[in-house]
């Protein structure tokens, strides 16, 4: 029961930021400039997530060859660009990381 | 089938801006299926990460049902990983809930950006869609919007001009994504003792690879390069200063503001539009 109450509270605080903008903003006419601003979000979010993950996987900057997260990122990105397929990129990334760790 | 036809179809549907039946209203059933198909790349990212989460959750001492239940009711990847480790370290419930709130606050950005693109729908449906909004589903939905913009609304600037998302499409995409997350979690719980350390299999890298792939496929012009560069730099700086996932929020806001500098003056074709248009013949050429 302890878990049920905890998860309910976690679900509530997670749901608020997901739902509030829907109820406040949807169906409204927003200024074009704001919409243009929103258009930057997908790319910005992705870059904001992935950059620290590959450049500072341990919380500090690791620009060296023993940083596997960074090393594997290069062929993974190339696979994505070459195949235009996200699934190919995901599979390539996981497989290459497994191989890199096995070698290390 | 997933290995050959499935992925190719999913990619094609995302990129193929000329598909005419996207524009016209179609049966709800079709839009659900279309949405589910668009979610396929997410499935490939979520199942392995879900397995990793299930394994770690079990290893942290949570009962299997609780590990899976969290994926059903909370459904927020990074927050769930953090919650599991906090539970294992004996943190108080208040600390766990507060951390969850901070980590998940970034969804306010996604919901804000999506709301002008949602077709008029009941509050119940809005409430439903809000429950399954994640980083990945937001980005995938944005890609669908992007492909529609080039086909029906070349200016793209105005909400309501065509690139509006029907409920079924979003619900199908997000429902499929959550299903795969819950299934992955359950697999991880079931296989926990066999698998051991998930990192050994590269499972933990699946989401990084998906972010990299999504990013690589979304960069079409100078504006995207500038936005990505700024966001990456700010997020990296904040991480080095000790900030966690919530660094995504300031990074996204600052980078998107920088992106506004690249908005072309009226009367000239958009910087991003020719790029988006030229990207379509390439992708329409078919997957290799």
Low-confidence stretches of chain A: none
C-alpha-based Rg of chain A, rounded: 20 Å
Q: Which structural class fits the helix and strand makeup of chain A? A: mainly alpha
Helix proportion of chain B: 55-70%
Number of helices of chain A: 5
Q: Give the number of helices of chain B.
A: 14
Strand content of chain A: under 5%
The 3D shape of chain B can be described as: globular
User: Radius of gyration of chain B over alpha carbons?
Assistant: 20 Å
Which structural class fits the helix and strand makeup of chain B? Answer: mainly alpha
User: Main β-sheet of chain B: number of strands, strand sense, barrel status?
Assistant: none
Rounded mean pLDDT score of chain A:
93
In percent terms, what proportion of residues of chain B is strand? under 5%
DSSP strand count of chain A: 0
Q: List the helices and strands of chain B in order.
A: HHHHHHHHHHHHHH
Shape of chain A: extended
Residue-averaged pLDDT of chain B: 79
